[in-house]
Design goal:
Elements (H helix, E strand, L loop, with lengths): L1 H4 L2 H9 L5 H22 L3 E3 L2 E2 H16 L1 H20 L4 H23 L9 H19 L4 H16 L1
Antiparallel strand pairs: 1-2
Helix pairs in contact: 2-7, 2-8, 3-6, 3-7, 4-5
Amino acid sequence: MVSDLFNLRTQLGFYKAYHHNTVNVMIHSVFVPTIFVTSCMILDRIPVFNNWSLTDVLSIPFATYYIILHRVVGLMASALIMLILYYVKQRNTSLKLEAGIWFTSWLFQFIGHGVFEKRKPALLDNLVQSLVLAPYFIFFEFLFVLGFYSEIDDQLKRDLKESKDV
């Protein structure tokens, strides 16, 4: 349903349902941001038009979607994306190194799911939603750990418990 696409609780709940194991959550907390940054680095090498890269172009729908889902956190995430874009433009790493880190990060993600979570990753059920939502979800999880938006965190935990009880 289209309305669910723009519902924060539904979107975060989808991703949270795939991440219960503490080790897997820690793996994701490290490697989702790593995948995001290395993806930006790799895609920044692909020119689109004028001085715009594929990373520049893709950052706009990511930031817009995050803001639509939650205005304040979306603005913070968008600012973080802008900082990442600035960093990416300053880099002097090789494509080989970036791709190696990217590949290794994905490997850890799959190990986290296979060994610790014992459940297939969310991306096997919805590739686009997972790739777009994963960095935002991790950002929310970071805010939850800091004590922010506890009402959203509590609601997601209740939703997850209720879905298991059904």
